Amino acid sequence: MSQLQTRFFTDNKKYSVDDVPFSIPAASEVQELSNVINKLLEAKNGSHSQIEFDFLVRGQFLRTSLSNHMEAEGISTEDVVEIEYVERFTAPQPEECMMHDDWISSVEADSEWILTGSYDKTARIWSLEGKAVMTVAGHTDVVKDVAWVRRDGLTSLLLTASLDQTILLWEWNSERNKLKARHCCRGHAGSVDTIATDPTRTKVTGEEEEVEEPPSRPRKKQKTEQLGLTRTPLMTLSGHNEAVSSVLWLDSEEICSASWDHTIRLWDAETGSVKTTLTGSKVFNHISYSPLCRRLASGSTDRHVRLWDPRSKDGSLVLLSLTSHSGWVTAVKWAPSHEHQLVSGSLDNLVKLWDTRSCKTPLYDVSAHEDKVLCVDWTDSRLMLSGGADNKLYTYRYTACETDAGA
Amino acid sequence: MGTVCVGGVYPAGCEKKRDTAAHSLLIGSGRGVFIEITHRCSPTLKWLTTSESFQLSRVCDIRNTVGNVPMEWYQDYPHIGYNLDGKKIFKPIRNKDELDEFLDKMENPDYWRTVHDKTTASDIRLTDEQVDLVHRLQKGQFGDVNFNEYEPSVDFFTNEVMIHPVTNRPQDKRSFIPSLIEKEKVSKLVHAIKMGWIKPRKPKETTPQYYDLWAKEDPNAILGRHKMHVPAPKMRLPGHEESYNPPPEYLLTEEERLVWEQQDAEDRKLPFLPQKHSCLRAVPAFSRFIHERFERCLDLYLCPRQRKMRVNVNPEDLIPKLPKPKDLQPFPTTMSLVYRGHTSLVRSISASPTGQWLVSGSDDFTVRFWEVNTGRCMKTLEVGGAVKSVAWNPNPAVCLVAVCFERTVLLLNPSLGDRLVVSSTDQLITAYEPPEEDKEQAVTWALSEGLEHNMGHRLTLTHPKAVKQVVWHGKGDYLSSVMPDNSSNLQVLIHQVSKRRTQNPFRKNKGLVQCVSFHPLRPYFFVATQRYVRVYNLIKQELTKKLMTNCKWISSMAIHPGGDNLICGSYDCRLAWFDLDLSTKPYKMLRHHKKALRGVAYHRNYPLFASGADDGSVIVCHGMVYNDLLQNPLIVPVKVLKGHQITHDLGVLDVTFHPTQPWVFSSGADTTIRLFT
Lengths: 407, 677
What we know:
Chain A: Keywords: Nucleus, Repeat, Ribosome biogenesis, rRNA processing, WD repeat. Chain A is mainly beta. Chain A has two helices and 34 strands. Helices cover 6% and strands 48% of the residues of chain A. Chain B is 15% helix and 27% strand. Chain B is flat. By secondary structure, chain B is of the alpha+beta class. Chains A and B meet through loops of A and loops of B.
């Protein structure tokens, strides 16, 4: 069998070709198929310039030759094969490298500023161009997590969580570059490893940051505003048997937490009760939730990135495993604007960019770090960030395909 | 058959002088003339008679004198012999046929006592006396009715003692005194018995003795050889193509011939070319004859002539049935993190009870604290010597780490974890009030202040000798330190932190102490010397058990969290598992490592134990202990973890498990600590 009947289609009208079956060699690979499409487009439109395409057969990216792929997937070669093609996601381009004094424990970027937490007991604010704007010093121990809370014009609220068992809420004026510690949140009996802010922070006056957790006490806390300098938890979510490694808000009513006791729990933010428990077999290091595809991605100590459906009742079902890392996956993050893409960082010094339609091989390996990668993040403004134990925060620029954005 | 022959060669009448009774006795022994007796009445009755009794009962004597010859000889003669006078005895006229015989049998009342005399060919009717005689003889009685076989016996000499002796000779003296000769003989026998020369007779063997008839039979003997015979390979019989005049279809055509010539000798279908000769006379000599004979001889010589009986043992069957490691998950499988920072070999590691921190002590005079999940060194403390042992207090409510180097045991507060715990630990230490009377203690307790206090030092225990190991009790108030010394009883000390007291529990030196350990639940104390592990009851202050390890030199020891099992690693590459309920000998001896073991550890929750050795590997085994006393622990080696480089012939120096996860830490001579998950 050397020829296959195929039919090409795409969502992008710009690159659409005639809906007729083509006969192409079964041994063709992505590059050859891409050439075929380019030829077709050139024939249709003389001013067409060469574009790299990626191909999906029944929702799976083509990575080997077409015949091998279909054999592996068990697709019949008798019928006409429907092949979807999309513009290839271009490799992220290294943009900036921001040197820190110590390991970078966490990073969170929004459209204007980058906030990083570091093991030198400070958090830092950077501009997107890589200029150090502000150093947030106040903790007496390692800063483990940082989060933006709210931005009102030039004034921003930000949170830093530290090993010294406190969370500090800061107010920062970007114009005057003034920083003021507004509140100190106490209540944890261990280091605070992770914090997350409520998605409705812009509406609620008493902004809620959902806090989290000591690797020794099985609980999480939620806080509300008080007038004093020190705040106490609004609510404590108890249930985990071991350290909670990651928390996030699914929406304004639901909190999700991942723990070393091999479970991911979904909590009702109003009542503080457990709604669902997803049980894995390994310690969870980090989780991320994409509102676009409504999936949870978890990074655990066994090299896999796993995808979960938090809504399913039979909660412990893994939808997909993305396997390519060779060390613990320390950080995962869904793309803010693409429902299939996520990025993961691992102890094997690699940052990998994944498309869930290709679970065996990542789209790109980013091997900029010389030591453990501890945190990753995306921004809406086409910036991907990763920080690690080599004290460097790398930013990469990626170009999202227009069709994929918001797909 | 109705005839019985009583053989005798003697002529009749040779004993006729005997009286009737005596003579008739001899009939039983077969002395008599040749008589054929026919019984005609009952098949069980046998008739016997003698010519003598005939003679008496008959008027005429017609005894036959022919002797012991077959009467058939006289078949064709009118007579059947000769009487005493030499006259012929003529056969009586017999014209009885079968019918007459039958009628006779039916009608003649005397038929049953009528016998046929062959020698005279006459029928004789036995008299009543003769019938009686026959009956008696049949019963085994004497022939004579009057013979009494039980007559009273008459002694030749009386058995009564008479008044007058037969001789009047006085008795000899020797009849009164014991015999000297006999005495000598007896004493010789007694001596021989004493010396063991004479042995008591062996009791006869009562068991019947059998022997195996075929025991000595050689299986290669003819019978065996026939059984195992392998015939020699047969030669192929010649076919048509070998004929001197083969049918034309067997002859090769020109093309086939060319092909045949081009082929290799092995590929050829035929080893020769069939050829046609007009007559047998024209066949030339076969040029390859010698060659073919030689090859045939080789075939015969090299062919297998014997069937070898091979015992097919499946090697799989010899392996004990153990569950597959796959089914025993979870256990550490891969190296995940390397904790780098030390500059010399890392002697000892210990994990905090929460599993968030790890402490390590090294020969570079530092103690380092690590964050477990990132491999970050959180703190480095310089101490004044090579750190031999570190131990994190197992009580989660106390934040203390014991470190020993040279002659000092240092209690550190690493200030990691909950602030409340950290401060309460400091309070606990400062709350000490010295007792009224000061007792002399083996060690000096000193509270650290100033700079040292800021570094984390809390208490310093200065020992009289170099300390090798420190170990905490499970409750976290007591700790024990080991000062190996071969010549003193001051080797093991037990300290109480809250009261700052020190005791020496042992009065005697039982050997060089290698390591000690507290029982996790009960007040027992384990002391490992070079070859033995002694279990002491601390409350009763007595030795409970002494475990023989069969090892040359124990290096390390770990107690199962259940408290009933114990593992010992030794420098002679062995790991001994003891079940304390079972025996004082090892339940299992594992020899998995190639070199000396340096550290062993049990997991607190999972059924796992690990051992680290100088070959640079950590071997993780599944060690399931069942609550059921009847079931022995299940030990399955599950994983060999490699990663440490061997430096100065030292590999892994210490292993310890994560308190909650199935992860194992190992520290090595290559200055690194590694985490396997």
